[in-house]
Amino acid sequence: HGYDFLIAPDRALDPDDYFVIVTEMFGSGGSSSPSNQVPPQTHEAFPSVTIRDNVAATHRLVTEQFGITHLRAIIGFSMGAQQAFQWAVSHPDFMDVIVPIAGTAKTYPHGVIRLESALTLVTQDPSILAGHDTLSTAGTTAWALHWAAWTRSTEWWRRELYRSDATPTVEAFIERSARRAPGFRPHDNVLQGRVWQAHDIGDTPGFGGDVERALAAIRARVVYMPGQTDMYFPITDAEYERRFTRNVGFRPLPSVWGHMAGAASDPADGVFINEVIGEALSR
Length: 283
Prior knowledge:
Layout (H helix, E strand, L loop, with lengths): L50 H15 L5 E7 L1 H12 L4 E7 L7 H15 L2 H4 L7 H15 L2 H5 L11 H11 L5 H13 L12 H6 L4 E4 L10 H8 L5 E3 L16 H16 L1
Parallel strand pairs: 1-2, 2-3, 3-4
Helix pairs in contact: 1-2, 3-5, 3-8, 5-7
């Protein structure tokens, strides 16, 4: 699930201390997705979904299946951070604290455009247009280039932190990334990209599309952890949202790893995230 650096003995989310629920988003490939459904809901015919839909489904899981009426915390990275904000607006008294890591309450226009450039690679790929489930070789390389550039910071690249025995050059790093790319499911990625683009807690019924009003309505404590060098969810967006959020602790990730800091790609980032979450839960 990608949270092994956080959910383990002697980590902030020690399963001996907490009942930890980890969910898969619609479109992830691990939950209901274009890649694993049967006709007529395969590929492009899969229904459009939102972050609110994911939160609504998880709320039903927690309340109806587990009989839980209150959560200590909602913690999420990236699109999981989007969900954390949505939880706090849709179910304001259901949790004590939310911890959004490297993700914002709304996807702003730059994020929409940046995502569209990646999604266009998929939707216009010759292999996809021909009805196949995988990208062409050129499309796979283009995808690897896009995500390599945006997931790390400019400083990460300047310091040449890609260098390792396996990837001594930029070309080797991209080639390795491209080799991993065929394992992904293009139609799932497009669905998730659309969900990401459309996210705005201001669209929650009752707020009339006003993200500032929705942020001001959050009653849970917010421990906001943007990435200092994140280019997916820029810290300037987080600083803007912070102004309208009442009970907020602002704890930027001091890392050059860009968006990947929130996934603890550098062990030092994992230490920081564990410390901040540990403090949040001990209050």
